[in-house]
Amino acid sequence: MFIDFARIKVESGKGGNGCVSFRREKYVAKGGPDGGDGGKGGDVIAIGDENINTLVAFRYNKLFKAQRGEHGKGSNQTGADGENKIIKLPLGTVIYDITDGKHQKLGEITDHEQKFFLAEGGNGGRGNTRFKSSTNRAPRQAKPGGESIIRELELELRLMADVGLVGFPNAGKSTLLSRVSAAHPKIADYEFTTLEPSLGVVDVSDFESFVMADIPGIIAGAHEGKGLGDQFLRHIERTAVLLFLIDVNSISPAQDYNILKKELHMYDPYLDKKLHLIALSKVDTIPNKDKEEMLKMIKTEFKQNSHENFLAISSISGENITKLKQNLWKIIKQTK
Fold this sequence. Notes:
Helix 3 (288-305) links the parallel strand 13 and strand 14. Helix 2 crosses helix 3 (288-305). By secondary structure, this protein is an alpha/beta fold. The protein has a 6-stranded mixed sheet with strand order 10-11-9-12-13-14, with helices on both faces. Strands 3-1-8-5-6 form a 5-stranded mixed sheet, with no helix packed on it. Helices cover 17% and strands 23% of the residues.
């Protein structure tokens, strides 16, 4: 199950208290202070894991608590440090602090085994040995351990892919992904077949490949929450290149493209400025005798409306699929 949003609570460990103790040994009438320090409380640490691609683990498990530090003991024994609590997060996770109603970005996990401290454990308190001085040879004071830190966090997963597929519902995005990769997204002849993002690895050659993400279909007004809303638009933010997929059977493919670009711009002014490629899908549905003339008309419309060109493809017949992969790879290398 793909889950890209979660709210959790983390609590670091409290520091152990310092100890008040004095030496009590045979033949030592007045032993000095020997109270040890308390141990440090455990930290709550997030670690990036490239083998995880969903936040489903946080659907029911909402509290993550580190161990408290042990109290100090006599004979100058320091208490053991509390055990850290490790939380594994998928790459692309953005972490927000929402404690007390705020919404502050703390950071994001982008690399495998990247560590991010979510809540630091309290320091161990000092034992009475620490307070011994020339004027106070028998101190009876010690410091308590530092308090734990409690935070409420919001986790938001944004897929990390080289290419993000952008298009209206039923434009053929899932069919294309299944054609160029080993991914098996749900495919059907109706709108909103894709209800969650899918990833696929696209092989360009024996040693070259890239990751493509199929994003659920966008409609006019998506940035305002229409259709499936803007819940999936954030997944496009991390993609290096955008592939706009337009159905050749649309009344106006050029207008469809402009609507998609507008929705991206309204969600994030930088999204529609990403490097991109336009592909006209389902050209196998056009009779061969009409194909050349129809594509010529659409090409003229694109030139007039957006000053851009497109590549006509078919995921069913395989027309221009190899060329599409090669062109995308060239653009990806530009971004790197």
